[in-house]
Design a protein that fits this description.
The protein has 285 residues and is an alpha/beta fold. The chain has a six-stranded mixed sheet with strand order 2-4-3-6-1-5. A four-stranded mixed sheet has the order 9-10-7-12. The protein is 27% helix and 26% strand. The chain has eight helices and twelve strands. The protein folds into three domains: 17-107, Barwin-like endoglucanases; 115-184, Vcp-like ATPase, Chain A, domain 2; 197-260, no CATH class. The N and C termini lie far apart (151 Å).
Length: 285
């Protein structure tokens, strides 16, 4: 058939779909209900839900009129005013809706969670004595999680916020009676340790010293005798190169000269068989 899309996945029509005006828990008779993701619905909704084959536990998809943000929630009670629902303030911020905005609720069947990856907003949360235990205790008040949600965790009268980066299987999961793996991404305010300028200079100085040691070549200085007098300037080019390159040879030569002293001239003047002749009897020729 022309125009048939093979990738089209059939989505059944929701058994429950209704529009409500959203109000915060501050306007509810029990304003302390701020933990978890459960909402308060009117009693007429309960009668409508019971009349259709919706599976329990109840989970709903929420969609705002003013934005395309989609999330999921559970239900705590059916005690709200007709046409209204009450929602925790942090969920309203997550949905980007204001007091009195319209919200569409649809029933949703979600799989059980097997994996979730969360990213704290503040590094302080990761420095708690046992952040996993704190998270586990908080998630007991949750019914479901969706990709892109920002949940609130309360501990010691402090509010901590965590972004839901990924949940499996699918983009939304059920948290009731589940045992799933939890990973934490680096907090949003986490910064890599900065290297100080002094440390960089020390490393550079050490590198320069290392290069100087490598460039050092022994026996390249000027030759000197043991008595401190520089080598003779009239030395030929070939000899001077040897003197400058092999200082040990110069040192040996200097020792020989010092040992011989001034007897070199006497050795040069000595001539054999030039003395007076004598015989055994003492008669001189």
């Amino acid at each position: 058939m022309a125009g048939w899309d093979s990738d089209y996945s059939y989505q059944p029509r929701p058994l429950f779909e209704k529009t409500f005006r959203c109000l915060s828990f501050d306007t509810y008779k029990n304003p302390h209900l701020k933990i978890g993701d459960k909402i308060i619905m009117p009693s007429s909704s309960l009668a409508e839900i019971v009349s259709v084959p919706i599976k329990f536990p109840l989970t709903f998809q929420m969609e705002g009129y003013n934005d395309d943000v989609v999330s999921h929630c559970g239900v705590l009670e059916f005690d709200a005013e007709e046409g209204c629902i009450h929602m925790p303030e942090w969920m309203m911020k997550n949905m980007k809706i204001q007091e009195g905005d319209l919200v569409i609720l649809r029933n949703a069947s979600l799989p059980r969670a097997t994996y979730m990856k969360l990213q704290p907003h503040a590094t302080v949360f990761t420095k708690l004595s046992d952040p996993r235990a704190v998270l586990e205790k908080t998630l007991r008040d949750f019914t479901c999680l969706s990709n892109g949600d920002t949940i609130m965790v309360q501990h010691n009268d402090r509010d901590f916020y965590l972004d839901v980066l990924e949940v499996l299987p699918g983009g939304a999961v059920n948290l009731i009676n589940t045992d799933c793996q939890v990973d934490f991404a680096p907090p949003l305010d986490y910064k890599e340790p900065e290297t100080h300028l002094k440390d960089i200079q020390k490393v550079d100085d050490r590198g320069k010293e290392h290069e100087e040691v490598k460039m050092f070549v022994p026996f390249t200085g000027k030759a000197r005798r043991l008595d401190g007098i520089p080598a003779m300037a009239e030395t030929t080019g070939e000899c001077s190169a040897v003197v400058e390159g092999m200082s040990k040879l110069v040192i040996d030569e200097g020792k020989k000269r010092e040992k011989d002293g001034g007897k070199e001239k006497e050795k040069e003047k000595f001539k054999p068989f030039t003395g007076k002749s004598r015989v055994l009897g003492g008669v001189e020729f």
